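Contributing new records

If you add data, match the layout below exactly. Sequence lines come first and carry their own label; structure lines follow with theirs. Keep one chain per record. Anything else will be rejected by the validation script.
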Amino acid sequence: MKLTERKSFRYGGASVGLTVAVVAVVVALNAIVSGIFNVWGKNLDMTADNLFVLSEDSKTILGSREDGYNDVTIYFMAKEDDLDMTASSANFYGDSTLWGMKYIYELATAMAENHSYIKVDFIDPTAEPGRIKAIVGQEYYDSHSFSSGSIIIDNYAPERDAKGDVLMGGDGKPLSLWHNFRVYSRDAFYGFNLGDYSVISFKGEYRLTSAILAVTNPVAPVAYFITGHGEPVGEYVMGEESTEYGDANYLWNLLRDSGYNIRKIDLQYEDFDTDGNALAIVFGPRTDYTSSANSQDAGEIGKLQKFVETPGHSLMVLLNPDTRALPALEGFVQEIGGVDYLDAKLRDDGNASVTVDGYSLIGQRAEGENLLTDKLDKVDAERKVIFRNTRPLRVTDSAKGNAIYTVPASSAADLADAEEVKAGDALLTFSTISEGSYLVAAGTTMLPYISYTERSDYANREVITGALSILADTENGYAVAAKVIPNEGLDLTTKQATVWTVILSVALPSVIAVVGLVVNLRRRYS
C-alpha cells in the first residue's frame, strides 16, 4: 500500500492542514483588528484590571474642573515613540529605563481625549532644558533632576485671589498667568513589594487624577505640621515625593496628593497665619503641649483652641502609643472632640493581625454614619485598614465624636498595660468641632505608612485621603483605587496562614497517604 493511501497519512495530513488554516485565520483576524485600532488611533485594553481605562470616578471629578480657565499639560520627559515599554512583575524600581511608562502614557492620553482642558506633550530633558525651566523656574530646576522617567503635570492658568476668583485686568482679561505644577518620577505611579521591589500595583489613575485636581484647585488648603515636641518631622523640601520629611513623609505625600500646601510651625514661638481652609497636624509628639496651667498665657493649647474655632480649620492627631504623658493635649482632644485616649497598646492573638508579633491589627468597620463614613462608602469598604502599634480611643461624647474603625474582638491591651479595652472602643475617630471644622484622631503614627498605603488590598490611603477631602472641603483622588497587577500571592492573617499551612502540609498529605494505603491493601487481598 502506498504511503499516501494509508489512513494515518490522510488523517494526519488533514489534521496538519486544519491546523495551518486555523493559524492563518487567527493571524488574519489579528492583522485586521490591529489595523482597525491603528486607523482609529485607539488601544484595546486587554489587561486584567483595565490599567489604562479611565474609571467613572475620574471622569466625573476631572470634569468638574473644566471651567474655561484651566489649561493642564502632562509632560513626558521622553520622545513619544520611546514610551512603548510595558510594566511587568519584574523589578524596575529605581532603574533608569522606560519600563512602565507606556501605561502612564496611555492613561494620560485617555484623560486628554475625555477632557478638553487636558493635553499631553513631550520634552527632551537633554536637548530642551529651557522648556522645563519655563515651567518650574530656574531655582526648582537647579535643585531637581529631570530624566526620561520624569513627568510634569502643569496648569498654566490665571492667578486667583484668596476666594478662588480669577484676577482680571482692566481690559477684561486675566491679569497674569502662572504655572502651578507637580513633578513625579515613574516609580510614583506604581506600588512595589518592599521585600523584592517587584511591581504589585498601578497607581497611575489615582496619581494623575490627584495631581490634576491639586494643580487646578482654586484655593489650596494649608497643612501645618506642629513641631517643638520631638516629633519625627524632618526638613521640609518642596518638590517631588518627600524623603526628607522624617517619619511623617508618608503623610506628607498624601497631603501633597490632596492639594495641600505644607508648612511646619512651632506654636511656642509662632502663630497660625491663614484664614482659608487649613489643617493642623499633631504627629507623634514626645512631650506635652503648654496650656494656661503651665504657661504665662494660653500657651500652645490656647492657640490650637483659637485655630479650631475658626470655620474651615481642622485638626488631625496621630499619637505614638509609647508616649502617653500628654495630659494637656489629650484633655484638649477629649474636650473638643468627645474622644479619650486610653492608656493601652493593642495586640492580637492572630485572629485580626497580619504580622506574627500581633501589633498590626485589621480594624473593624464601625456602624453609624457621618461625613467620613459617607466618603468611604464610595470606595471598596471591605478592604482592610491596618493599625500598627496603636492606642485605642473611647468615644465619651457621641454628640461630637464617632468611631470609624473599632478594636477587633480578639484584640486586647498589652500585658504591661492595666487599662481595660472594651468592645466598641475605637481605632480611628471622626468628630465635628463646629460647622466646617473637624477632628480626626488615631493612636498610631503608622496609619499612613507606605507598607499599607502602597498595597491595593488595603484601604489606608482611601481612609486618609477621604478624610483630607473633608477637612479641605475639596475633591481629591480618594475614590480612585490603585489597580492590581496580577500576582500569585495570598493575603491572609497569621491565623489563617497557620491553618492553611497545617491543611496543606499535614492534613492533605495524610489523607492522600491513607487513601493510597487503603487502595493498596484492597488490591493485595482482593
